[in-house]
Prior knowledge:
The chain is an alpha+beta fold and 380 residues long. The protein has 8 helices and 20 strands. Strand 7, helix 5 and strand 8 form a beta-alpha-beta unit.
Amino acid sequence: xxxxxxxxxxxxPWQDPKSQPYVTIKNLTKTFNGIMAVNDVSLxxxxxxxxxxxxxxxxxxxxxLRMLAGFEPPTTGKIFIDGVDMTDTPAYKRPVxxxxxxxxxxPHMTVEQNVAFGLIQExxxxxxxxxxxxxxxxxxxxxxxxxxxxxxxSGGERQRVALARSLVKHPKLVLLDEPMAALDKKLRxxxxxxxxxxxxKVGVTFVMVSHDQEEAMTMSTRIGLMNEGRILQVxxxxxxxxxxxxxxxxxxxxxxxLFDGILVEEQSDHVIVKSTLxxxxxxxxxxxxVPVGAQISVAIRPEKVMLTTITPKGEYNWTNGVVEDIVYxxxxxxxxxxxxxxxxxxxxxxxxxxxxxxxxxxEDEVFLYWKPxxxxxxxx
Length: 380
């Protein structure tokens, strides 16, 4: 779930046609020995965003990040940062800093020396270096660690030092390559919140690579979901989750139930879908961009599916089945219900009572139902 910020009545930059992108990627392609790693990607990122490139290993997201950093030259295409063409600019001349997955701290330098290294290379005055290092170590809550060596730090502390080293140079763009992959779950969750708070304080544009959908959903202003070198969908966490534009996106982000069928009726305020996987038709309260008779899929998230032992009313949006499995996750349980057609439907139910008191158990015959607004039409 995305971190909630204060509601603003004005449009977000990416919603405002008058806004100018801060980072623009135009038709970017990268091939390695004839193999396409990044395939004709165009993307606009706005100032102050925390934008995530999300996808499975090998989808091209890290290659795209490395081209932004200047570590890989594009085969074709252009990269602009703050209106300046950076396509052929070497990495050391770009207003970009990168936080690596391994953090890449110098093991023979103290925390203070690691953070100051880039400033020393640029010939910044000693007094300014000291002031900046002090300020950014305080920002990442590492004051008092100045004299420690990297081997004396935990994974989370190293990550914060690496971030301070990137921010201290006042870059226009900070790139993060799987920055929390080495942290355990609890520390990762806490660090995600800290990183978002730091990014909001400094106002620097962040682009992060992640294969962890929960991490991207928690931290990002927007997400670009990648597969096979292409960006399939760009949107905010809520948009990507609630309104996926394809079966691949729906399956990648969270869990989903998919019902293949045929669109048999379309009205201005609803569509009706007949599925071979269940006896009842599906009634969905929005129009579709596909014609009547088209083969489509209907996606329904497990938390939108409700369970009951009482036959639902009406002729749409319900079916029956048998509980085959119950996965207990503490706050919720996921019920795996097998329909007469043989497919399994997932229903996520909050654990409001203890396990022994639950009205529905293994091998019970149940009914599943959902609201008309919960279905999502997917044409591909």
